[in-house]
Amino acid sequence: MRSKELIHPPRLHAGSRVAIIAPAGPLSERDDLSRAAELCRALEWEPVPGRHALQRHGYLAGTDTERLADLNRALTDPTIDGVWCLRGGYGVTRILDGVDFAGFTRRPRAVIGFSDLTALLLALHRAAGVVAFHGPMSRAPLTGFSREHLLRVVARAEPAGRLGAVPAPAGVLLPRSPRIVTITPGVVEGPLLGGNLSLLMALAGTRHFPDLTGAILFLEEVGEDLYRVDRMLAHLRMLGLLQQLAGVAIGQFTDMKRATTEGALAFDEVLLTFFGPVGIPVAMGFPIGHVDEQWTLPLGVRARLDAGRGTLELLEPAVT
Q1: 176: pLDDT strictly greater than 60
Q2: What pLDDT was estimated at residue 159?
Q3: Which of 16, 115, 138, 146 is catalytic?
Q4: What pLDDT, on a 0 to 100 scale, did the predictor assign at position 35?
Q5: 158 CB contacts (<8 Å, ≥6 apart)?
Q6: Is the same domain home to 223 and 98?
Q7: CATH code: domain of residue 229
Q8: 220 a catalytic residue
Q9: What is the predicted pLDDT for the residue at 164?
Q10: Does residue 120 share a domain with residue 35?
């Protein structure tokens, strides 16, 4: 159930002005910004670097004031058509309450990122009802697979359809579909919501937490031990949120340590523990998260999950 009408931002097209900003962690080198600008141009978009994109304040890309200024400018400047974040790391939750949601609502635009940017994407969708995009960062090279999925979602005002069935661009060899493991079979439809599990949990109890009623929840994570993932899922269960879901698509849990000195559990066993009793379709292994070849998923768009076949299909356009 959606709390408000879904708003689809305008599609990105040749000549679109795209802000490239760092609202979380700092860039490792100046070349990151140059590569992001080159990537925008390769997609025929005009890059507009944030004024403070190269700043560093400890483990942050500038002070909270600097990062928030770049973010709000990118979200509200009427000459900007899209926002493509440079990297994740940490820092979005420090500035989230200062985001100009009202200004963004007056002229929505596509906002793209993942990992720590999960907090921003979910907050924008919650506050403004606007589709936001869980997809690759602008500083990293795009594989043919990731590029095609990104453009299918943010640049084409038509349903993307089944995400696994992507025609290869000329001269590009796409990898085989990832190995999908069915936890609980079934087919379900609902709005697509989710992102990084740690950031989802960081929003719990705040006004930015998404309405998960009837949603297909997708999750990804990086560098978290399995017992910590277990604990976060237990927290979601204690909040009564698992019972609200229609289905779950588990992405990549990259660099996850599965054993402790006391023993080990399998990841699918942990997932079955929490989602099995709910009786909803669940599958794991989708190309979502900290991997080179990843999908771009539009938050809020209606989707269909077939956990038995391991497919996810977008049923409506993400942009106009």
Answers
A1: no
A2: 85
A3: 115
A4: 96
A5: 317
A6: no
A7: 3.50.30.60
A8: yes
A9: 63
A10: yes
